[in-house]
Amino acid sequence: MKYRLYRNLPRTAGAILLAIGLIGDGLDGLLLFSTGVRPSIFWHVLLALLWAWGVNLLAWQGQARKAVSPNRWGLTALLLGMGTFPGLGMSACTIAFLLARCLFASSQFSHALAGNPESGRERELEEVFSPHEMVLSPFVDDLREDNTEARRAVVAKLSRSAHPDTTRLLRQLLSDATAEIRSDASIALTCLDEKLAQALHQSFARWHANPGDIEYTLAFIHHCHRYATSNVLDTKSQRVYLVLARDLLLEVLAGGKREEAQAWLKLADIRQRLGEVPRALQDALHAVHMQPEDREASLLTMDLALRCHAWDILLTLLEQHAGALPGLSAFLSSQRMSTCSEVSWSGL
After folding, report:
1. What are the Cα distances from residue 161, in Å, to 3, 79, 246, 315, 316?
2. CB count, 10 Å around CB of 28?
3. Least buried of 5, 177, 257, 308, by fewest C-beta within 10 Å?
4. pLDDT for the residue 30
5. For the range 306-309, what are the long-range contacts, defined as Cβ-Cβ under 8 Å and sequence gap of 24 or more?
6. Average of pLDDT values for 315-319?
7. Higher confidence at residue 1 or residue 187?
């Protein structure tokens, strides 16, 4: 309860300051418009400052100690309040601010009513723990420094993403020579595991309540796949979730409910992780046939073809993407020439 009051205190103060500044400057503007008597510029500046500070506090999001830091709404309000007719600029900006806040709140509320898996707490988890592309080189370099506090700051940054590469690096830090780093890495992995598990359980609850809903089913498959590939689980647990995701995805595809290249591509990725490489190749080929321009599907198919020694499939895909891969055209040309030479010499 005290924490909630502590968080709401800046916004309460902001509402009071906004009201004082808006009403006071509005009265000054009304006086100037009706009588032509211009009030003191001091009061206009003071009221504009109070009003802009109130807008700044109302627009604040985050820690209370940062509530007084200028933000975009506060700076915009200050410029409008100082440079426009008394009362008019403040009124226009206040209406725009309140409309923006109301529209944002109603958007979040509608997402929650619709049961959208990207809304509310789930949306926050998706933003923080989604497997975005990450460049780990700077983190690896920083972890080689002798400064323990700087290295702990790097671990804190790594703990904000459940990308497989970051969790793999955190696992390596469990055997670090510094006790603080080992402890921080262990706590980070535990927190990531809990967050991913929470998102998975929420998705499972929605799917279990509506097993016939294709969107909930696909969302649950996504969470199973993400949890299994995040490197926070042991090998046995990873296989459990991969098998569950594979079986559900096969049901979706067999029922013809969702015939998309990305679904076949995810099935191929799951199967190759389970060791079912030949079947994964067939699924990846299906995705390529449906969406030939998808480079991700083609690259996975080429990798699987190489592992299966399916040279005809590999060469066909290499020729299709020769223009996109530098140096590949010359390599293929040389391969064709050598093949032709071998054929001509064998004929002689």
Report:
1. 27, 38, 25, 37, 37
2. 20
3. 177
4. 77
5. 307/277, 308/277, 308/278, 308/281
6. 83
7. 187
Q: Which residues of 79-106 are buried (b: 16+ CB within 10 A; e: fewer)?
A: ebbeebebbebbbebbeebeeeeeeeee
The one-letter amino acid at 168: R
Domain boundaries, the chain: 2-113
Q: Using CA atoms, how far apart are residues 267 and 261, in angstroms rounded to an integer?
A: 10
Tell me the per-residue pLDDT of 205-227, one tens digit each, with 9 for 90 and over: 999 998 888 889 999 999 999 99
Count of residues for the chain? 348
Say whether 18 sits in a helix, a strand or coil: helix
- For residue 83, what pLDDT band results from cuts at 50, 70 and 90? confident
Its sign, for the CA torsion 44, 50, 52, 54, is negative
What's the average model confidence in pLDDT over 139-166? 80
Cα angle value 270/197/235 (rounded, 5°): 45
- Measured CA to CA, the distance from residue 138 to residue 39 in angstroms comes to 58
**Residue in the structure block whose two tokens are 């309460």:** 12
CA separation, residue 79 to residues 48, 90, 160 (Å): 9, 10, 36
